[in-house]
Design brief:
Helices cover 15% and strands 34% of the residues. It is an alpha+beta fold. The longest helix has 14 residues. The termini are close together. 18% of the residues are buried.
Length: 151
């Protein structure tokens, strides 16, 4: 069985969470913005090291009913690693819980990224037409409880 990240808590603001998940019962709250405090950095580091060691070239994850195979990426120095893949607008909307397109009159591009500390992020870019460059338009954090690492 692969090491799971579902018990980690992302301490960022505005994280999409499943508040029915048992890990939030008694979880410490942040004093600065009233959301949850994140998992202690040492615990997160140990879990991340195990996941990175078990998934050396790619990671298979299931989020909701969708399965993704994210290749492992790294910085030019190799010190920073993460997993990332482009996803469709429909997949983005399902994972992020959007009911309408985030960019009405723009073309959208989306990616799913699992950082080296095992935080999970959906990135979004937009451009008015094919003649324009992509511009970063933001991100949506999702709780690790939505991610199941597959064999």
């Amino acid at each position: 069985m692969k090491t799971q990240i579902s018990n980690l808590i992302n301490g960022a603001k505005n994280v999409k969470r499943d508040l029915e998940n048992p890990k939030y019962i008694g979880a410490p709250k942040s004093t600065s913005f009233g959301d949850y405090a994140g998992t202690n950095s040492e615990t997160r580091r140990l879990v991340a090291e195990k996941v990175l060691a078990e998934n050396q070239t790619e990671i298979m994850v299931k989020i909701g009913s969708i399965t993704f195979c994210l290749p492992k990426c790294s910085s030019t120095t190799g010190k920073t690693t993460w997993y990332e893949i482009s996803i469709t607008e429909a997949e983005f909307m399902q994972i992020a819980g959007y009911s309408a397109k985030p960019f009405d009159h723009y073309l959208g591009s989306y990616s799913l990224k699992i950082y080296g500390d095992m935080t999970v992020c959906l990135n979004k870019w937009a451009r008015p037409s094919d003649r324009h460059q992509w511009k970063f338009r933001g991100y949506d954090w999702i709780g690790e409880e939505f991610v199941t690492i597959l064999n």
